[in-house]
Structures are given as C-alpha cells and as structure tokens.
Amino acid sequence: MRTTRSRSPIRTLGLVATAAILASACSSATETTEESAPPGPAVVDVTTEDFAYVGLPASVEAGTTIRITNDSESELHEFVAIRLPDDETRPVEELMQLPPEELAAFFPLVETVILASPGEAGIAVEGTGTLTKPGRYAIICAIPTGADPEEYLAAAAESEGGPPEVAGGPPHIVHGMFAELTVEG
Ligand SMILES: [Cu+2]
To answer: What distance in Å separates the CA atoms of residue 176 and residue 157, rounded to the nearest whole number?
Structure first.
C-alpha cells in the first residue's frame, strides 16, 4: 500500500509528460498539414424556402461563394446581393420599407443574382455567386409571388438585365424574404 502510494505520483507525472509530448506532436503535425494544403475558397450553402433564406450567416469572409438550393415546391426564388454604400447606415429591414422607386436606386449595386427553380440548385445569372467586395449587403428576393418559374426564367433571359415582366403578386420581399449580410475584408 505504501509502495503503491509513493509510485503513483511518479507514474502519473510520466503519463502527463507523455501526453504533453503526444499533444505537441499532434499540433505540429496539424500545422504542417495546414501549411502544405491551404484551405480552398469558402462555400456557404443556403436553402431558400417560402419565404426565407435558411443557413445564411450574418457574416462571411470576402471571396466566399454562395450556393443556393431551393426547397420550395412551387416558388422560384432568388438570391440578389446588393452591396450597400459605405455611408448607408440604415438596417436592411428599414430599407425594405422604402417605396419601390427609392429601393430601385440600389439595383445598380447588385453584385450577383442566383436564381433557383423549385426543388433545384441555383444558377448565377449575374455575377458568379462569389462575394469579393467587403461591406454590408442587402440580400433580397424580388420574385413576384406565385409567378410561374418557367415563364419568369424565359422573361428574364429576354429582358437583358431589366426586371422581367411576368404576372404575379407582390415581390417575396413583402413576405420577409430578405436578409442582411456583412462581407468581412
Ligand atoms: Cu423568393
């Protein structure tokens, strides 16, 4: 009993030392791996539903690519990323209350538009889906409620960047389909 007690702390110290060596070996191995294989460009997967963006973080690193999957059964959705001016301090929620003509002033600041048909992956129709410019963004979906996805896509292809003229209700924005995103420099 006495012998066991006196040995025990020594054995424990030995184990601690071994563990420390193993831990340092592990961490240096991890560092070496990171140096030889730098992480690739970040990709953030966002799901659209009626009427929200699911999985969109509040901020991403510059250079992040947004990928959309549309979980809706009937609605076409879009991810329009508008890079807000640096001197624009109003929250996106407040900007969404502006009359359409004032909101339209932000449209030239669109960085990317990703369109996604019901049940499908999104396709970047403007820009590449990659957000390279740091700053604050308004993410909006302006698809008319109830618009026919095929009809909208055909009209969008013909409108050459202008808003497609299709039948439908108010834009999805009015159902709360917008978000604020910060791209960190
Ligand atoms: Cu939508």
So the answer is: 26
Does one domain contain both 70 and 160? yes
* Structural domain total, the chain: 2
34 shares its domain with 102: no
Residues 141 and 180 in one domain: yes
> What separation in Å is there between the alpha carbon of 143 and the centre of ligand 1?
5
- The answer to whether residues 124 and 140 belong to one domain is yes
- Residue 15 Cα to ligand 1 midpoint, Å, equals 59
Separation of CA 131 and ligand 1 centre (Å): 20
- Going 157 to 158 to 162 to 168, the CA torsion angle's sign is negative
How sure is the predictor about 36, in pLDDT bands with cuts at 50, 70 and 90? low
Look up the domain containing 149 and give its range. Answer: 43-184
CA 145 to CA 141: how far, in whole Å? 10
Q: Sign of torsion, CA 88 106 51 98?
A: positive
pTM value > 0.85: no
